[in-house]
Amino acid sequence: MLYDVWRQVASGARDHLALWDWNSNRRWSFAQLAAAAESASSLPDALVFPQGNSAEFVISVLQAWRFNRIVCPLEPGQATPELAAGLPSRPGIVHLKTTSATTGTPQLVAFTAAQLMADVRNIVHTMGLRPEWPNLGVISLAHSYGFSNLVLPLLLHGVPLLLVSAPLPEVLRQAAASQSQLTLPAVPALWHTWHDIRAIPPHVRLAISAGAPLPLDLEQGIFNSHGLKLHNFYGSTECGGIAYDSSPEPRQSGSYVGTPLHGVQVSLTESGCLQVRSHAVAETYWPRPNPNLGGGHFITSDLARLEEGKVLLLGRASDQINVAGRKVLPETIERALATHPQVLACLAFGIPSEDAQRGETIVACVAGRSDITPALLREFALSKLPAWQVPRKWWFVPQLQPNGRGKLSRAEWRKRFLAEASEAQYIYAPRKSG
Q: What digits encode the pLDDT tens for the residues 278-293?
């Protein structure tokens, strides 16, 4: 099914540019890309593992589709998953995604061709992706975001793709200058870097941010300095795109992530978690199914509120911190601390308390713009939060580095804290002013 659709797309745009690998300066028209897909005489394995951010990734996917192999994209350096239970036995499975594991052990998520097609159809329709605005590919092709926003629009909707190996400012400028108008999907960390050094290309017609929460000050700053609206996109590995902020003006609330994509319906469970229904929802987890996924519905772990068609995220149910029987969302603490002018980034999480009756102790991991003491920040927090929500431990670090998927993982930083800093009231790592 997927390969048949690709052949129709390639036939209708034979001589138009399809793929440009900027790093090697190799270009393929749709006809040439189709020929590359036909160059393999066979594929010996039942699974294909495309890897990296080059043209070979795209060609590998096409060849897998041609020979009816299951595609399982991998990040650079990611180990091939062990499938001790064998391949998914359900009919029609063509694709396996790896969850981001922000809340636990990575799992495989199995998709049919129809589900992949529904996801990209929802994205293209909602965002208005078009062949006249090529995608500039700076994010991972293996990640669900990159695969659905870069690879599938190229292969199933004829949206050209310009690939760069690394989002370095000068490379970004040069690659973008080759197009009169383009679409640029990225993650907040990249947008922040480009904004700070004024490297955002002037030819961007559509700017998208996903993979992590988009800070309001970053969105407003880019809008003020470039006149460019940064569109927040919210999705999940298990169901693809969920919500998108299509408004022309910056958001006024950081919890607002957009309205449901075309073809997507959302509701809330009794516990307040967001439930998604669409034809893009995956078939199942593999090899251990879960009732939260399948049959066209997916129950996320995101606590949400729905207001007049808008989706507002409150935090993750699994991240709630239990303080003496009272629950607090780490986002509540993070949003309060982030309003301090010297705080660049922060994460809050709970660790086991020495007093069992207290449940957990709140830890704040903070990257500051200049010297700042726990006493000053604690006093500031007390002016914003109830006393029981104020962190008892403060961990000051030079920077909060996102992981390879552009996310700030509380689970990862919590693990580091327990290994490096749990015995101290706080650890202070000085940072240069600026």
A: 999 999 998 889 999 9
Q: Is the pLDDT of residue 375 over 50?
A: yes
Question: For residues 330 and 313, what is the distance between their CA atoms, to the nearest angstrom?
Answer: 12
For the beta carbon of residue 168, count every other beta carbon within 10 angstroms. Answer: 14
Structure tokens, 408: 């700030």
- Residues 391/336, Cβ–Cβ less than 8 Å: no
Give 85's pLDDT tier (boundaries 50, 70, 90): low
Q: How many CB atoms lie within 10 A of CB 69?
A: 18
Q: Could you report the per-residue pLDDT of 153-178, keeping only the tens digit for each?
A: 999 999 999 999 788 888 888 899 89
Of 265, 159, 237, the residue nearest 205 (C-alpha): 159
Q: Which residues of 323-353 are buried (b: 16+ CB within 10 A; e: fewer)?
A: beeeebbbbbbbbbbbebeebbbbbbbbbeb
Q: Is the pLDDT of residue 382 over 90?
A: yes
- Look-up of token digits 């036939």: 11
Neighbours of 262 (CB within 10 A): 15
Inter-residue contact 207 to 221 (CB < 8 Å): no
In whole angstroms, what is the distance from residue 122 CA to residue 126 CA?
Answer: 6
Task: Evaluate whether 81 touches 91 at the Cβ level (below 8 Å).
Answer: no
The single-letter DSSP state of residue 51 is B
Q: Residue 173 in 3-state DSSP?
A: helix
What's the pLDDT at 341? 87
Q: Which amino acid is at 389?
A: Q
Inter-axis angle of helices 113-127 and 2-12, nearest 10: 40
**Domains assigned to the chain:** 2-316 (3.40.50.12780), 320-428 (3.30.300.30)
Tens-place pLDDT, residues 203-262? 999 999 998 888 899 999 999 999 999 999 999 999 999 999 999 999 999 899 999 999
**Does the reported pTM lie above 0.85?**
no
DSSP H stretches of helix in 341-409 = 374-382
Which structure tokens are listed for 149? Answer: 């926003």
